[in-house]
Design a protein that fits this description.
heterodimer; A: 6-stranded mixed β-sheet; 3-stranded antiparallel β-sheet; 9 helices; about 25% strand; globular; B: mainly alpha; about 5% strand
Chain lengths: ~280, ~260
């Protein structure tokens, strides 16, 4: 479990990005962290990984304080940054040098993930394309079997088949003890993969809800006319009518559209808060 | 689990640190040794044995140490590189010790061995090339001997500078994420200039005809055409020596450790 208790963080003491953020992240879930550029997604991840320190409040990851960066903590967490760092080593050399730091590293799975992601195993890692490097890092991170996996824009640079393969891999490695936290602004990449959504904007937590809860409270559909009296969180003119996100009062079961949800919540945070605060 | 120091984990880290960037570290070593060799040769042929041995030792030892220490913590040039380094499951003490071992112990062993070998080769070749029947043989032979590392004032002073500059470089490379070597050099030069001018102002109040006013052992005054060195009283010299030999490097090297612990990325 990851707990943020009154977390305050800012790159400058005068201008705080997050103020008194309180949030609880449960094990056994895949979280999608959505936000605009500069909304503070990476900052939140770095606070969990212990590479940035809160200026107030605390972050506790499975009972440990990330900012102490103790080996016993770092063995349980893997953070994939948005850009990629790979040294001038072959895959085998990299595995031999880095894997011993992770006691639960599974070598067989590592090579299986590489095959599934179609990563070329020949040559030095720094000579691979950005997408191949990214896939390599993802495969290594998954093979480390850490309890917490933090990924910052993991699908950036991946081609379409790799994105699909990535989703399958993430689903296959999930278990009850694990937390996978994915930050992205490429919302469609997360659809059908995550089971919890967190939306942040300008350092504020706008939404934290499970996919089931969202489906229960919101209805996503395309209509020719907006129903009178409906509480519409978001609407967008389309070729075949108007796509709307509205409060689900009739217990309709509609598919989740993360992009529309994100637009609705960021454009109309007060209404989103009202809808999600009711039982 | 020991979260402060674990010998097997430290061994893994040292191996990883060296092999991960083997070309960078070996390249830095090779460049320093090549520079040392060239400098020795150039000064020897343009000046004499004394300046060749002394200047090469000073520049190779201090310059090489600084270059190496700028490499050992140079993970922070990219966000991902810094994050990968900070989140690698090893303690800050182990990571710091790795840097210290490479830029401190390993560099000293390699540099001093190379310098001794190079000096031995040159000096032996010189001695063997002398004409034994010449009446000047003895004086020419005695003109040069192997450079001694013990009881050598230049080596002592160079070691003081080495420990201080390497410490400053390690601290600087953890503060400046990019082009740390240049930035630290600028800061150190600025600091030395400020100390120099401050000292010059103080010394000028006490003496006239001040020639050079660098603190510690190079405050010189000019009396007509002669230049004299103003020495500190023994007790003050000893205190300054202890400060520069142990206290300041200690502060710098420990600051590097503390900075690594608190480093954000």
């Amino acid at each position: 479990m990851i707990q943020f208790q009154n977390l305050s963080f800012g790159y400058s003491p005068k201008k705080l990005l997050y103020q008194n953020l309180t949030l609880e992240i449960q094990s056994g879930s895949i979280y999608g962290l959505l936000g605009k550029n500069g909304a503070g997604k990476s900052t939140l991840l770095k606070n969990m990984a212990g590479t940035l320190f809160p200026v107030g409040g605390s972050v506790i990851v499975n009972g440990m304080v990330p900012q102490t960066r103790k080996p016993s903590f770092l063995q349980t967490i893997y953070y994939i940054a948005e850009d990629v760092y790979v040294p001038a080593l072959t895959i085998k050399q990299y595995k031999n040098l880095f894997a011993p730091f992770y006691p639960l590293f599974d070598s067989n799975n590592f090579y299986r993930y590489l095959t599934q992601l179609e990563v070329s195993v020949d040559g030095k890692l720094n000579k691979l394309s950005f997408g191949q490097q990214k896939k390599f890092v993802i495969a290594f991170a998954l093979a480390c079997n850490t309890r917490v996996l933090l990924m910052d824009e993991p699908t950036n640079g991946l081609d379409i088949p790799s994105k699909s393969q990535f989703r399958k891999l993430i689903a296959s490695v999930m278990n009850e003890d694990r937390i996978i936290f994915i930050s992205t602004h490429q919302i469609r990449d997360l659809e059908n993969m995550i089971d919890n959504v967190i939306i942040v904007d300008d350092g504020k937590l706008l939404l934290h809800a499970s996919v089931a809860d969202i489906a229960d409270k919101l209805c996503f559909k395309t209509v020719s006319e907006i129903p009178p009296g409906a509480r519409v969180l978001y609407s967008e003119k389309m070729l075949r009518g108007t796509a709307i996100v509205m409060e689900n009062t009739d217990c309709d079961d509609s598919g989740l559209n993360l992009e529309q949800l994100f637009n609705g919540v960021t454009e109309n945070p007060a209404m989103a808060k009202q809808i999600f605060s009711t039982n | 689990m020991n979260d402060t120091f674990n010998l097997s984990r430290f061994g893994l880290l040292l191996k990883k640190t060296i092999l991960e960037r083997a070309m960078q570290i070996i390249g830095a070593f090779a460049a320093v040794l090549a520079f040392t060799f060239l400098l020795y040769t150039l000064i020897l042929y343009s000046l004499d044995w004394g300046p060749a041995q002394n200047l090469t030792f000073i520049w190779g030892f201090i310059g090489g140490g600084v270059v190496l220490s700028s490499v050992v913590f140079s993970y922070f040039t990219t966000n991902a590189g810094g994050a990968a380094y900070l989140t690698l499951p090893a303690s800050a003490l182990e990571k710091w010790l790795c840097g210290v071992l490479i830029s401190g112990l390993l560099f000293c062993i390699v540099f001093l061995s190379f310098f001794r070998l190079m000096d031995y080769t040159f000096v032996t070749a010189y001695h063997n090339g002398l004409d034994r029947s010449s009446p000047l043989y003895r004086s020419l032979y005695d003109h040069v001997y192997l450079y001694t590392f013990l009881d050598n004032n230049v080596v002592i002073k160079a070691t003081i500078l080495y420990t201080n500059f390497v410490g400053a470089m390690m601290v600087g490379s953890l503060y400046f994420n990019r082009v740390a070597l240049v930035k630290v050099a600028l800061v150190v030069c600025g600091l030395l200039a400020a100390i120099y001018f401050f000292n010059l102002a103080v010394v000028s109040l006490l003496f006239s005809n001040v020639d050079v006013a660098f603190p510690y052992f190079t405050v010189l005054i000019k009396v007509y055409s002669e230049v004299g060195n103003i020495e500190l009283p023994h007790y003050a010299y000893d205190i300054t020596n202890i400060f520069l030999q142990y206290v300041l490097p200690g502060i710098l090297w420990i600051t590097a450790y503390l900075r690594l612990r608190e480093k954000e990325n």
